[in-house]
Amino acid sequence: MPTLEVISLGATNVPDLSDLTVFVARGDTHLKSDRALFQDDLDALAGVIVHLGTRHKGTTVWSCGGEVSWNEARDGYFGFHSDALRDINLMLGRLWDVSPSRKLMFLSDIQGGPEEARRVTLSSNADFFKLAEAAMLRFNTIYTLHG
Questions:
Q1: 59-110 residue pLDDT tens
Q2: Which of 75, 117, 134, 137 is most buried when burial is the number of CB atoms within 10 A of its CB?
Q3: Please, is 47 exposed, middle or buried when counting C-beta atoms within 10 Å of its C-beta (0-12, 13-18, 19+)?
Q4: What is the pLDDT of residues 107-119, one digit of tens each?
């Protein structure tokens, strides 16, 4: 199942995300990923991390398989269902607000996904949402976003 995390660079506090309707958010000021793929990248950074999870049968699960739209034509790529995309938009906005540099990193990690980890810088948050709506976000990638 995919792990999704967002880093708000330079932030010192996690904003309130309790009103998300699709996702559950767990925030921390220690940049520790739930998976090891990008931990070396995170060790060199400062900020806050938000781990996305979902509710399943009354329990919080720290993965997001049902909330992503899988790209059937391109293995290893995903996007978000419209309800989930609204939560992502709300969350990213609040994380940009607490980032002094207005810079975020969106991490996706899935076991059995693309073997090569990638790092991609997008010129605008609109580019991120275009990829998300078209199910063209790549698993095992860090997307750097500028707000």
A1: 776 667 677 888 888 889 999 988 899 999 999 999 999 999 999 999 999 8
A2: 137
A3: buried
A4: 999 887 778 899 9
pLDDT at site 60: 72
Residue 34 DSSP label:
S
Residue with tokens 């419209």: 82
Number of domains in the chain: 1
Structural domain harbouring 93: 3-146
Place of tokens 């900020």: 47
Encode pLDDT of 39-68 as tens digits: 999 999 999 999 988 777 777 766 676 778
Q: How many CB atoms lie within 10 A of CB 98?
A: 16
pTM attached to this predicted model: 0.92
